[in-house]
Each structure stands twice: as structure tokens, then as C-alpha cells.
Amino acid sequence: MFQKASIKIYLFYLVSVGFILLNLFFMVKRDQVVVNALPVLLVFVLLAIYSFDKILFLVVLFAPLSVQLSELRPGLSFDMFLPTEPLLFGLLILFFLKIIAERGIDRSIARHPVSIAIYINLAWIFITALTSTMPIVSFKFLLSRIWFVVGFYFLAILLFSEKKNMEKYVWLYAGSLVLVVFYSTYRHLGYGLYDKQAAHFVMSPFYNDHTSYGAVLAFYIPMLTLFAFGSLYKGTTRLFAFFVLAVILLGFVLSYSRAAWLSLIAAMGVYLVIKLRIRFKPLFITFIGAIVLFFLFQNQIFMMMEQNSEQSSADFKTHISSMSNITTDASNLERINRWSCAIQMFENKPVFGYGPGTYMFQYAPFQLKKNRTIISTNSADAGNAHSEYLGPLAESGVLGLLTFLFIIGVVVYTAVHTYTRLREKRLKSIVLSALVGLVTYYIHGFLNNFLDTDKLSVPFWGFTAMIVAMDIYSRNQQQLAQKNPD
To answer: What is the pTM of this model?
Structure first.
């Protein structure tokens, strides 16, 4: 059986010989651009072989700055985020080589309840890819989901066994995100900061629109607030944390993303519930009561919403109140149109759905004339189903939704119990901030869906990995304490 060192040596020679052959081939073809790019590619490959953590950190660093291939080369039949997705594909191969070399991965990770929930979800995506109306599209969706999960969840958990890497993971993304905020704000100044329409595109090409931009800014605010106001840092480092938080908050306000604002407010409520140790039972009763009241008075509620004619605006109060305008606000009406299509697609194929990733290609015939708006199209422009929950429902049937909700439920349960079990204040704060950050996206997911991009997958799966890593650590500490009570 080969030792790890031997495997690395063989891989080194294999990659080196492959590089020389490719270089010779392209020299014959006289494609000088490709020849110049090959040494850079070789560096990345060797880094992946000898130190996967550096590649993962590079992906996290580049994620806010990544650009879709279609922005650089329009008209191609495929698309990907550069340079992150090729690196993630390389990490996926490395991960499987690691499993072969080490005969599996750590049992505490492989058998963790969150990991099991992810397996179930991926298994159902695989099954519905087999039954898909567009199998190639669905298997491409499955492949991208797998490399996001492998890179930002499984490999990240291994990375977070060294606890300082959790802060490093956050800082790398936040640092690049600050550059995007500066870029977007500078462009926004050219139109005037009160120009809400400009807020829809000034972050391009790094983010597709203001909703994904606002979602990721909301995601990082809880963790950066911890860095700025908690006891993790002192002196100059803390001042830097204040600066980064201030820049992120500036971008957050100027994103004019109502969904992001709403999600952060809801997440603050969850934070207070956990900090005040409010029991689950009264919360559950209140939640059920609210649902019952909604259905009892739904006609009156919808009548009130139909009377709201406020349009989205640069004025904060007007912009917030426009969220309930389902009469004239085109953005709100288009969401209802997309949701209606998703529900009809589910009703047509309730078990297996139309196939993962197929909504944008299949929803057009389900648009009712009365639901179409001035921004309606037949190609899912400006987002897909506009819901992280209705999308899987339409594409993978009822189990597509339930398996995704199962992941969320297990993550929240794990986070709360890990927070309670941990004794180190720093680690407790990180777990709580990770959960609150995730909650911003759980709420935002009712209105938009971005988990098919590297931009949101980095924090979504990465913060989940932090919670799982700390859960494993706290359980190990608890077992050691029981074995050694003195």
C-alpha cells in the first residue's frame, strides 16, 4: 500500500510530465496565450496536491471577485464562475483521492447528522436527475452542488479543526467583499446614491444584481459585528474590524435590497431568542398561532396588501412599505408570477419534479396571462423561481423541498445545542454568529435563490461547516471530561 508521501511524489511527477506534454502541444499549435497560462495552472495543481487548505482559502478569497465566463465570452453553450469553479472541481478530485488514500474520512464528520441530511438531499437530487426532463442540465446542477458541498463543507470542516481558520475564512471573503463595495459605491456615485435603479447593476459583473449582493452582505454582518464589538480582537485589529463592518453596512444600505433588510431584522430576532434563552414551546405555539391567524384572516390581509400602492424607492420608509405592495410593484408581482409557476409545476409533477436546475427552461408555459408583468420573460431573466424552497419543489418534487428543509432543521438544532454545550466564550460567539448569518439566508431564501453560485455557497456551506466542526469539538471535550472528571 502506498504511503501518503509516495502518492504525493508520484502525483508530482505525473503533473510535471503532463505539463511538459501540454506545453509542447500548445507550442506546436502556437497558442501563446494558453502556453503562458499553463505555469499558473501548474502552481495551482501543485498547491492542491501539497496543501489543499491554501487552494480552499484562494477560492474563498476570489469568490466575491469571481466573474461568469459568459461575461468574458458571450454566446458559449456553457457557463461557470472564474476562477473559482475550476479550482473547486480540482478540490473535488483531490477530495476523492484523499478518501482513497486514507480509506475514507473521519467518522465524526462522515456520520454527523448534518452530513447525513446532506447525503439524503444529494441522493434525491441524483434520483430526480435520472428522471429529469433535461438530464444533462440536471447532472450539471448535481455536479456543481457536489463540488460546493465538498469544498465548503467537508474540506472546510477539516480546515476548521484548527480553530483560527474559522476567522481566516470569514476575513478572506469579507476582505474581497469590501473591494466590491468600494467598486459598487464608486459606480453608484456617478448616478447619485439615491438612484435606486442604479443599485440594481452597479455591482456587476461581480454580482448579478442587488438581491444577491444584499444577501451576502447581510450574511456577513453578524460575524463582522462579533469581530468589531466582541472580545476576539483588541487594538488595531479591532479598529480594522470596525472599518470593515462600516464598509459592509454602507454597501448593505446602498444595495436597496428589501429582502436582505427583512432577513437581517428576522435574524436579529433569532439572536435575541437564543441570548434570552426563550423556551422552544412558547415560540412554537406563537408560530402556529400566527399561521392559524393568517389563514383565518387571509382575505382581509390580502385586501390590505392590495390597497398598498407604494413603489420601491430610495426613501427607506417607502421602500420597506412597498414590500407588501402586490398591486403595482413590478418586482413583487413578478415574484408572485414565478412562485405561481413553481407551484403549478409541482402540481403537474409532484413526486420527481421537472429535474434539478430545469426551472428556468420549463416555467414559461405555466405563466398565466393575469400574472405576467412588464418584466416577465420566458427565459427566467433576473432569477429563477425566486425561492430557495419553491425551486426544489418544482424541480425535485415534495422530497426535494423536504430534504432541503431537513438540512436546515438539523443545522439549527445542532447550532443551538453546540452553543449551549461549549464553554469557551470565543467559540460560543462564533457558533452563534454563524447561525444568525445562516438565518439571514434561510429567511432570504423565501424570496430569492442563489445557492447555485459560489457567491452564496461560500458562507452557506462554510458557516454550516463551522457549526459542525464546533459540535464535534465540543462533544470530544465533553467525552474527555467524563473520562477524566478530575
So the answer is: 0.85
Q: Using CA atoms, how far apart are residues 132 and 119, in angstroms rounded to an integer?
A: 19
CB 446 within 8 A of CB 265: no
Query: Is 223 within 8 Å of 180 (Cβ atoms)?
Result: no
Q: Taking 50 as the threshold, does the pLDDT of residue 367 lie above it? A: yes
My answer on whether omega of the bond before 83 falls inside 30° of 0, hence cis, is yes
Phi-psi region of 310 (alpha: psi -120 to 50; beta: other; left: phi over 0): beta
Q: How far apart are the first and last CA of the chain?
A: 42
Question: Does residue 23 contact residue 7 with C-beta atoms inside 8 Å?
Answer: no
SS3 469: helix
CA-closest candidate to residue 223, choices 11, 14, 432, 1: 432
Task: Write down the H helix ranges in 30-106.
Answer: 32-50, 52-62, 69-72, 84-102
Distances (CA, A) of 394 to 138, 318, 353, 376: 13, 33, 5, 19
**pLDDT tens readout for residues 16-32:** 666 566 555 655 555 44
pLDDT single digits (tens) 426-479 = 999 999 999 999 999 999 998 889 999 999 999 999 999 999 999 999 998 888
Peptide bond before residue 205 is cis, with ω within 30 degrees of 0 = yes
Q: Cα 78 vs. chain centroid, distance in angstroms?
A: 21
Give the Cβ contact number of residue 131 at 10 Å. 16
Q: What is the predicted pLDDT for the residue at 7?
A: 57
Which 8-state DSSP code applies to residue 160?
A: T
Q: Give the list of residues 6+ apart from residue 106 with CB closer than 8 angstroms, or none.
A: 158
410-432 mean pLDDT: 94
Highest mean pLDDT out of 77-81, 385-389, 398-402: 398-402
Distance CA 342, CA 433 (A): 33
